[in-house]
């Protein structure tokens, strides 16, 4: 019988409303920082012990994540983190495009000075992380920036959906940075979104978000296909055109 892979997650944080939510946060963090590995076998008992909680909230957290496709249970054995394939990635980005482009348009049109100040904080943090080549910190603030745009558009459910999607896509790799783009390049790709928000230009914000999602989505699909050659590029484009492309994307 295969032994479960060791987990190094650490005790869960105390800033979530329930033990289940805290367990979800801890699992998400382990996905983002690479301490839990796609395809490796883990057990509920093992994770509960690592987090310092009982089995029940861990089981409930994993069931929630199973609904998003991030977790796959194996009867009497445990669970694995499940990495989405190229088609699944395209479908996930279709949801991001459907939610984040109109959110960028709405957020830019209605942004308050306080909200723009919060955007500037994340921009500064992204810039600092890019300059330091600190990928974990960069990805943390990347997700916070996208979350703020969704929050400022006024749809809390959209943010929850996008957070789940980003957890799934993170399993393909920490990001498209490895072998594809530098942190500085990704930072520069965010700047048109931030500039448009600052100018409260709704159409420009939507267009910049569309470009960013397309670039990121195509590269992740290409990475999942497994190559940098013409065949992988063409295959990723076909999937994007089939499952994602629309008037704004």
Automatic annotation (TrEMBL):
PANTHER family: TRANSCRIPTIONAL REGULATOR, GNTR FAMILY (PTHR43537), UXU OPERON TRANSCRIPTIONAL REGULATOR (PTHR43537:SF5). SMART domains: FCD, HTH_GNTR. GO terms for molecular function: DNA binding; DNA-binding transcription factor activity. Pfam families: FCD (PF07729), GntR (PF00392). It comes from Naasia lichenicola. Residues 17-84 form the HTH gntR-type domain. Keywords: DNA-binding, Transcription, Transcription regulation. This is GntR family transcriptional regulator.
